[in-house]
Design goal:
Largest sheet: 5 strands, antiparallel
Bound molecules: fe (ii) ion
Number of strands: 10
Low-confidence stretches: none
Order of helices and strands: HHHHHEEEEEEEEEE
CATH architecture: Sandwich
Structural class: alpha+beta
Number of helices: 5
Distance between the termini: 51 Å
CATH class: Mainly Beta
Mean pLDDT: 96
Helix content: 25-40%
């Protein structure tokens, strides 16, 4: 079983590298360079305790949609999905982010302290948001890439308006750029990556 998990994780990360390599988006080269230096051999493998969250109710639907973007990636996600440890920030509450947000939000790490391979100041994971949610303006020192695997969510950074991004787009956030994500009628599954300065968590912008 551990060997099969390792094989599936490497299948998934290879699919991520292959998918991102087709993108010419800002920041992709930085992510690919970090991934190229990431250990993912048997000796580096750890086993986070698998955990689902209410939002992962939408995961199979999102993986099915990911097949439209990249069937190999979707198949690898389905293989690894039972082993993922889904987490939430304890600082994100319904009082801050809207009634029902906590039950409609979650993230996991593939690489990182909660993932399968410890990264060296490098995090790679998945984010989920349920339909009709607004992950409002926040920022962090880590440079960040998002790669939505499903369509329909709106994204903004800086003073931009919220703009729909299709599945397979790449979205790069330079350090401390304020950014937000809003879903409409569909849940969102996105890959995310912090390429450095990972020790400081995201902070919500105080509401006026
Ligand atoms: Fe972010």
């Amino acid at each position: 079983m551990p060997y099969l998990l390792l094989e599936n994780l490497n299948w998934l990360i290879d699919a991520i590298i292959g998918g991102l390599a087709k993108s010419k988006g800002e920041g992709v080269d930085t992510v690919l360079a970090r991934l190229a230096g990431q250990r993912r051999d048997a000796a580096a493998l750890v086993h986070p305790v698998a955990r689902s969250l209410p939002v992962t109710h939408y995961l199979s639907q999102c993986i099915a949609e990911t097949m439209l973007l990249d069937a190999r990636l979707a198949a690898a996600l389905a293989a690894v999905e039972p082993h993922l440890q889904w987490c939430r920030s304890i600082h994100y509450t319904d009082a801050l982010l809207g009634e029902g947000f906590v039950a409609n939000y979650g993230w996991c790490e593939l690489v990182g302290p909660r993932g399968f391979f410890p990264g060296e100041d490098f995090l790679l994971g998945l984010l989920m948001l349920g339909p009709g949610r607004h992950y409002r303006d926040h920022y962090h020192p880590a440079p960040e890439l998002y790669w939505p695997l499903t369509s329909g969510a709106e994204w903004r950074k800086g003073s931009e308006d919220l703009t729909p991004k299709s599945a397979g787009s790449t979205i790069w956030h330079a350090p401390n750029v304020v950014h937000a994500t809003r879903t409409q009628d569909k849940p969102l599954l996105a890959l995310w990556c912090w390429t450095s300065d990972t020790a400081t968590p995201a902070k919500l912008v105080a509401q006026a």
